[in-house]
Amino acid sequence: MVAAVRKRQYPLIGDGRGIMSFIHLHDAAAATVLALEGADGGAGSTAIYNVTDDEPAPVRDWLPALAAAIGAKPPRHFPEWVGRLVMGPGLTMMTEARGASNARAKKELGWSLRYPTWRAGFASIGSSPR
């Protein structure tokens, strides 16, 4: 995704109302370890967790912020009908996605995030080697 944003190949479609959830690799790994340590291994042990940050956000908010964090030009903007022609069913993510809640993972695993919001995660991109 970052490479596409750098090349301005990840446009903002329509009003960018689709809500997405993010997760930093470190936070995903920590949640995975906690889930594995807590697994009892018995048959039927199928706990499912949403492992995301605390702040699902519309594309119109996070996409320009990601471009700025990586030093890229702002994303291009296309009307929804153009996006539908190019992306087909993939357009749903940009316009209709609803985000996810990490409440169950936090409660049952005792999980906490190093990067609790996409903003904090994006800020860490800017300080990472490219």
Q: Would you kindly provide a written description of the structure presented here, covering whatever features stand out?
A:
- This protein is mostly helical.
- The strands form two sheets. The chain has a two-stranded parallel sheet with strand order 1-4.
- It has seven helices and four strands, in the order αββαβαβαααα.
- The chain has a single domain (2-126), classed as Rossmann fold (3-Layer(aba) Sandwich), CATH 3.40.50.720.
Outline:
This protein is mainly alpha-helical and 130 residues long. It has helices at residues 2-6, 25-38, 59-69, 80-87, 91-95, 103-109, 118-126, and strands at 12-13, 19-20, 57-58, 77-78.
Give the full name of the CATH homologous superfamily.
NAD(P)-binding Rossmann-like Domain
Share in helix = 40-55%
Q: How many separate helices?
A: 7
Overall body shape: globular
CATH class: Alpha Beta
- What is the mean pLDDT? 88
- Strand percentage: 5-15%
Order of helices and strands: HEEHEHEHHHH
Q: Which CATH architecture would you pick?
A: 3-Layer(aba) Sandwich
Q: Might you state the CATH topology name?
A: Rossmann fold
**Count of discrete domains:** 1
- Main sheet: which strands, in order across? 1-4
Number of strands: 4
N-end to C-end Cα span? 14 Å
